[in-house]
Structures are given as C-alpha cells and as structure tokens.
Amino acid sequence: MTKNKILLLIPLAITGSIFLYCWAIILTTDVLATWRHYAGLILFVPLVFLFFKDVRKAILATGIYLLLGTFNILAITPAIDTTWIGWAIIHTPPVQLLFLGIFILYFILNFRSLIDIYLDYKEAKALKEK
Prior knowledge:
By secondary structure, this protein is mainly alpha-helical. The protein contains five helices and two strands, in the order H-H-H-E-E-H-H. It has helices at 3-28, 35-53, 55-70, 97-109, 111-129, and strands at residues 86-87, 90-91. It has a two-stranded antiparallel sheet with strand order 1-2.
C-alpha cells in the first residue's frame, strides 16, 4: 500500500466507521433517515470504489465529499447537528462540526498530494497550450 493510500485511508476509515454506526442506529431504532443520510450513502460508495481504482481521483472526491458534508448537504450521524461559526456580524452557513474536523484532518494528511495534483494539472495545461 502506498503512502498516499494510507494517508487517504485514515479519513475514509473514520468517515466509514461513523457512517456504519449511523446506519446501524437508523436500522435498529426509530430514528428515520433523511435525504441527507441517503445522499451520504449514495456518494460514499463511489469513494470506496475510487480508493481501489485511482488514488488521485479518490483524494479529490474525498475532499469534495467532506466539503459537502461540512456545509450540511450530507449526513453521517443519526442526529444532524449544525452550528454557525461567526465573528461579530459575519457568520458562516450552517456547518457540521464533525465533518469539519474530519475535513481538517484530511487536508493536513493529504496536503502534499493535493499540491502534487494541482502542479501536475498546471503542467499538463501549460504543455497543452504549447
């Protein structure tokens, strides 16, 4: 297993384990799944597929998945808890702090890979223009 896969596996494993717990609670109790839970389920499956198929695409897709969850479009917990972060009169849209924490961990672990992907993109674009 390469270093990139291991660094990507950490946030994916955390997200997946919380996700499994969420669906176990939904299926065994009277908690009802919302459209955010179903969206989280539908979009998590391609992440696992991309992890084994193409790590570079999986890194980008995981970041997008975590951003969507941070801004309250996806849910991986049985109860959807949102918070507003603000200073004085400036406030963010509602965010889920669990997703935000996982996204920050993902960004710290995969920063070098994200920079490499960006530089490869810029290089390919420059070569295409010549």
